[in-house]
Amino acid sequence: MKQEKTVKAKKTNQTLEVFKRFCKNPLSVVGFLIFLIFVLAAIFAPFIAKYDYTTMNTELIFLHPNLDHLFGCDRFGRDLFARVLYGGRYSIALGVLGTIFATLIGMVFGSIAGFFGQTADNIVMRIMDILQAIPGILLSMVIATVLGSGFVNTIIALSVGAIPGTCRMLRGTILQIRSNEYIAAAESINCSKFRIIVKHVIPNTFAPVLVGATMGIGGTIMQAASLSFIGLGVQQPTPEWGALLSDGRNYITLHPHLIIFPGLAIGLVSLAACLMGDGFRDAMDPKLKK
């Protein structure tokens, strides 16, 4: 019991140290706050938006921003502020879920390649070489074309393209962990391979996985918007940010507000995710503990 309490106290202290180092980085804190604001705005969109995002009004077609309609209205007279708020639900969810699925799948293959080595390592790495030979956005486009547009299909398309990076990163980390004494100790008492991977290997790869996943969210949001923009991701009437950009691109000269606000939302959230990732990387770097 005392040992368990000591371990829990040690983990709590390490978490607090990481949090304190993260808070000492102003840009990371700003990024976290921006990301949090967008997430909360998307969740509480029904209480923030004054108008329904699906309601059309022919008298308000292409209305420019004013005090009543903060972001103006689109070509159907729908309130753009409401559509951007609700669009955050889809865009942020695509970025987060796509990154989570890619990370989980990459962890599985990376763990197999790094822990078992030899034949398993060669097979997994050759598969990753094939996937990584194709640019991520191009691979996502191919998969989205085959599966068709839609929220779930877009998540699958985004996930596959991000798997190789996570797999390679985790494989390299596990190769270092395998040489540690606690792995040899676990093997000496006949722990199963599965238990060693789940209980000892993966928990010690949490820091690089968290950093990689956080920094990957911004890029995934950008890729999701790109797919929707070219008609391969989430499509109208769903107010995803990339779809909003695609809907307003033909009116950019006379009505630039149709692309300015969705574009700003994409840029700010992606930047915020990158700043958070940088902050977590610096906070979890053992070299900075001193």
Give structural notes.
The protein is mainly α and 290 residues long. The chain is 73% helix and 0% strand. It is built from 12 helices and no strands. The protein has helices at 2-23, 26-43, 45-48, 80-116, 118-132, 136-147, 151-177, 181-188, 193-201, 206-229, 241-248, 257-284. α10 runs parallel beside α11 (241-248) and α10 runs antiparallel to α12. The longest helix is centred in the middle third of the chain and has 37 residues, at 80-116. The chain is elongated, with a radius of gyration of 22 Å. Residues 1-5 have low confidence and may be disordered.
Concise description?
By secondary structure, the protein is mostly helical.
Low-confidence stretches: 1-5
Order of helices and strands: HHHHHHHHHHHH
Percentage beta strand: under 5%
Radius of gyration: 22 Å
Total number of strands: 0
The termini sit apart by 31 Å
Overall pLDDT confidence: 84
How does the helix and strand content classify structurally? mainly alpha
Largest sheet: none
Number of helices: 12
Shape: elongated
> Which percent range fits the helix content?
over 70%
